[in-house]
Design brief:
Hexon Major Viral Coat Protein, domain 3; Jelly Rolls; 2 domains; eight-stranded antiparallel sheet; 7 helices; 13% helix
């Protein structure tokens, strides 16, 4: 079957886009199917110290585990037939968590995809990168790029697909001792590319992975989080950031901090048989083990060891539900015991993953 390359430009096309801009790509492909997992966004990144003065010898960095994804803070997928399918807020943080949970430094920049996404083994290198224009091309981590197996998206079933992105503010994606309010960036030559094949009769619906994000504040030593979603999910991962450090010029807004004195978690949820499950996690090591298992089953090779996660000073919590958990009628709960106070609160960023079909 012949495969065709397609390129679409933003609906409101401009020579370049700046921080905070909202950009829509409408993918229209009558009588064809989009090949699943083939959609990517490409462009050229330029970072400036002020105005259009190139950033040179100024201590400003982006997160090496997030790369170009850092500059895209929100991604929405919608279809003509179903409306909004996925709305990923705090998208860049999800990428940071995914990569720290699945890779070690030696695996970064191990293939062309990492290079195209501007990933590197150390954030200090990113300062050198930004002395010049940086072409990039990345595969957004959204449902239409997360088919379970091989599948296509028939136009006759879903109509036009729209991929909407919001570019980050500089303080959301850049940091360092040289960071000022004048530092800015632009993205030029912005486009969306994808592959198509001719539509066949009786195309089968293939499930795809989807993410749901929730952000809440923890402000006590005994914080209880309860979440209900219009979704059936199978995994959850979470990371933390001190409230006072969010959106500060010199600090990395994507840091994954260990909350002060965190020592116990109590999870509660209904499993796939609707049986109520409640259990404690009482050590840092077990918390991180469960975090890693929220990306892969423990018998999979996920490339990121418990020791390495500790060495890199990344911290996260999570859970593999080992089955489908319905959060439409039941809530997911986690009680966090720590030394957090109202005078020094933390954000918790929670990402649930589940499975959907477009048609």
């Amino acid at each position: 079957m012949q495969t065709s390359y397609n390129q679409r430009f933003p609906v409101s096309q401009k020579a370049s886009y700046k921080s905070g801009d909202n950009v829509d790509f409408v993918l229209s492909y009558p009588n064809k199917c989009i090949v699943g997992n083939s959609i990517r966004i490409s462009g050229t990144l330029d970072v400036y110290s002020t105005g259009n003065t190139r950033l040179i010898n100024q201590q400003v960095y982006y997160d090496n585990y997030c790369g170009i994804h850092s500059f895209f803070n929100n991604i929405v997928v919608s279809s003509q037939t179903k409306g909004v399918v996925e709305n990923q807020s705090d998208y860049a943080r999800w990428i940071k968590m995914r990569n720290t949970g699945t890779k070690v430094d030696s695996q970064i920049v191990s293939n062309a995809r990492d290079l195209n996404e501007l990933l590197c083994s150390d954030s200090s290198i990113t300062n050198i990168y930004m002395n010049q224009s940086l072409p990039f091309s990345f595969i957004p981590d959204v449902c239409i790029n997360n088919f379970i197996g091989t599948g296509v998206i028939p136009y006759s079933k879903v109509g036009d697909l729209t991929l909407s992105v919001r570019l980050s503010q500089p303080v959301e994606c850049l940091f360092g001792s040289g960071m000022t309010n004048d530092v800015n960036f632009t993205i030029s030559d912005l486009s969306c590319e994808y592959l198509t094949v001719a539509e066949q009769k009786n195309e089968q619906s293939i499930p795809m992975l989807i993410s749901y994000s929730v952000k809440q504040v923890l402000n006590s030593m005994n914080s209880m989080i309860n979440v209900k979603l219009p979704a059936i999910v199978n995994r959850v991962s979470a990371s933390f950031l001190r409230v006072s450090e969010e959106l500060t010029l010199t600090y990395n807004n994507l840091e994954m901090e260990r909350p002060t004195g965190i020592r116990k978690l109590y999870y509660s949820f209904n499993d796939q048989t609707n049986t109520f499950i409640s259990f404690p996690v009482e050590s840092i090591e077990d918390m991180i083990e469960h975090y890693l298992s929220s990306f892969f089953r423990t018998d999979d090779k996920n490339g990121c060891t418990l020791m390495k996660l500790n060495d890199n000073k990344f911290f996260g919590v999570g859970l593999d539900f080992e089955g489908q958990t319905n959060l439409v009628n039941n809530s997911f709960g986690v009680n966090i015991v720590s030394d957090i106070t109202s005078g020094d609160p933390y954000y918790i960023f929670i990402y649930f993953r589940g499975v959907i079909s477009l048609f």
